[in-house]
Hints:
Layout: H1 3-7, E1 18-24, H2 33-44, H3 54-65, H4 69-80, H5 87-99, E2 107-113, H6 120-129, E3 138-143, H7 150-164, E4 172-175, H8 183-199, E5 205-211, H9 215-219, H10 225-240, E6 246-251, H11 264-273, E7 278-282, H12 291-307, E8 311-315, H13 322-337, H14 340-344, H15 353-365, H16 373-394, H17 400-410, H18 415-427, H19 440-472, H20 474-493, H21 498-510, H22 514-525, H23 531-556, H24 561-564, H25 577-597, H26 616-619, H27 628-657, H28 661-690, H29 692-711, H30 716-744, H31 750-779, H32 781-800
Parallel strand pairs: 1-2, 1-3, 3-4, 5-6, 5-7, 7-8
Helix pairs in contact: 2-4, 4-12, 8-10, 11-12, 16-22, 16-23, 16-25, 17-19, 19-20, 19-21, 19-22, 19-27, 19-31, 20-21, 20-22, 20-25, 22-23, 22-31, 23-28, 23-30, 27-30, 27-31, 27-32, 28-30, 29-30, 29-32, 31-32
Amino acid sequence: xxxxxxxxxxxxxxxxxxxxxxxxxxxxxxxxxxxxxxxxxxxxxxxxxxxxxxxxxxxxxxxxxxxxxxxxxxxxxxxxxxxxxxxxxxxxxxxxxxxxxxxxxxxxxxxxxxxxxxxxxxxxxxxxxxxxxxxxxxxxxxxxxxxxxxxxxxxxxxxxxxxxxxxxxxxxxxxxxxxxxxxxxxxxxxxxxxxxxxxxxxxxxxxxxxxxxxxxxxxxxxxxxxxxxxxxxxxxxxxxxxxxxxxxxxxxxxxxxxxxxxxxxxxxxxxxxxxxxxxxxxxxxxxxxxxxxxxxxxxxxxxxxxxxxxxxxxxxxxxxxxxxxxxxxxxxxxxxxxxxxxxxxxxxxxxxxxxxxxxxxxxxxxxxxxxxxxxxxxxxxxxxxxxxxxxxxxxxxxxxxxxxxxxxxxxxxxxxxxxxxxxxxxxxxxxxxxxxxxxxxxxxxxxxxxxxxxxxxxxxxxxxxxxxxxxxxxxxxxxxxxxxxxxxxxxxxxxxxxxxxxxxxxxxxxxxxxxxxxxxxxxxxxxxxxxxxxxxxxxxxxxxxxxxxxxxxxxxxxxxxxxxxxxxxxxxxxxxxxxxxxxxxxxxxxxxxxxxxxxxxxxxxxxxxxxxxxxxxxxxxxxxxxxxxxxxxxxxxxxxxxxxxxxxxxxxxxxxxxxxxxxxxxxxxxxxxxxxxxxxxxxxxxxxxxxxxxxxxxxxxxxxxxxxxxxxxxxxxxxxxxxxxxxxxxxxxxxxxxxxxxxxxxxxxxxxxxxxxxxxxxxxxxxxxxxxxxxxxxxxxxxxxxxxxxxxxxxxxxxxxxxxxxxxxx
Length: 810
């Protein structure tokens, strides 16, 4: 009997029966990928574990995590699996079995897992089956997580609470929400470390590694986990009195958020590189060894340390250590049967208030800066504005091949149409099918010229609108441009003739200043730490617009109003008027949304005198800010190469796979969906941490395999595989390059600088479709996409030469 057992005088009278449940996480059923996938599906679907928006997270989990991560996790689980099973399961069972004979007579012990058998529900099922006069009237739950955290202890409570909802009779329920300062836990943790130091007298440093959680949970949600970790660390450090340095770190990061730091892997490897060749690591977030200790620390980190030229000593958890079991049993006996005073004596007292304040201050330096509520409101309005704008803009995309065929058939003698066809015939004789209609290669080139017209006008208009917004403000320019787009869509509704369609496209192109103004608005309400997040939000609106716009365009292309109302044809109504009507309606709603709710974001002191010019070349003269011109050049090269491939996609799909307008809509839905997920789940959170330059470069490289796949795509799966890489790359490139331009530019020049940026993109969209259409027409689709893959390498090399962006704008 230990001294602690002597200090507790067990009651002689018969105490009421109490069921003690050791609550633990659990492990997969086996090392099979399918079993690991089911384990991760349930684990990561817990809102306590991942507290993202449920719908968004469900999409990310099922499309981007569960298809890929289980295989890698299964390999890790296979490394720690033994003949007995997984360490967490076997060690927990051994702890329960070792405790059973040492507990008071009125205590009966069970173990239960959140994600393995037996579950808490199984234990309570057995309790209900017992004789009503014999069964325990109280349940004491002891989670095997010493420090409290929402993602662990609260999950245990949720599991039990969810099960209790289904039952009629409930026991008195008590949960030990933490025991991180208990004398038993601290004393035996110190003993374990000392034993390791004795075996490894040449150990130069000790790292106390806790399981990490997202920093946001501590700073925003006030999770007390970090406080508990600090108290555990200080108690171990003070009692250990070791002459070697002791550090506190955090391990097991997941996702793209900033987590509690410093990170264990990076810290330990850095220490080795700095000369500490033998380092011990102890993990007091766990009572028993598991994947995070046995493999993450004992195997993976040990390999990293070895590669760096050092040796890692993994100090095991307490597990079923006999001395620990004796004092752990005493802890449970007193907690279950003792008085309040006796319980309080189980814990060490420690005050770390001042130390905690300092740690929180340091941690907060790594957190992304928070936007004020007013800025969040503006970004939400801008998001809605751009979403509706892009739906109207992209609604035409899946209909391009059909529109080209329609006007070539019904208005072939039109002056403008004849001029375009004469231009094409001067390049090469027009090829036709047996029924006299132009072949797809001719339609592609015609479509390229039609698409280039709109982009040419964007090229002229974007810097002009950006400069005007720097002088008179963002709000009036948005109102003018959105109303102009509304008028262009009204013209499109009645564009029975090709002439009126051209006029509609001219008006729309001249009024398309919204993207450059949206970028300027983001720069007005964000700083250098969250600008990429703001740009990504606009990018997500862009992506969602590309999801819903083409989808609606494909659906509405199925409805030809003149078939139902032939008399309308006299007013210019055409097969595409339904889509045009929806685009006009959205622009009209957009106009009144801005008019009613959108405030001016350009500060009075930031407005500058406008040097008026209608010459786009003069407007785009090089700016005297390091990095801006190179970024603009990289963006121009990227858009030129990318837009040509993007524009010819629908023609390629029609030619090779016989796609309809609705099939083309599905392509754009897929592209927009991937862009939205990548920008919302990765770029928005990770861009500033990874670095906008590096992420832009990675995005450019990701596009290359996509273009190669498209070059040879003869089946839908290959087509969509190529589209995935195109969407992945563009999702990273556009918001990051936009952010870089903003970083390099003073605040009072944001509108013009970003207007130039967008205008160069528009110029690229003039050149890209034309060059791609010419190559497609002359050499075929394979060469068009292979040349595009080669051209993408050029902006990647330019991005590599970009300077380090300044910390903040002047």
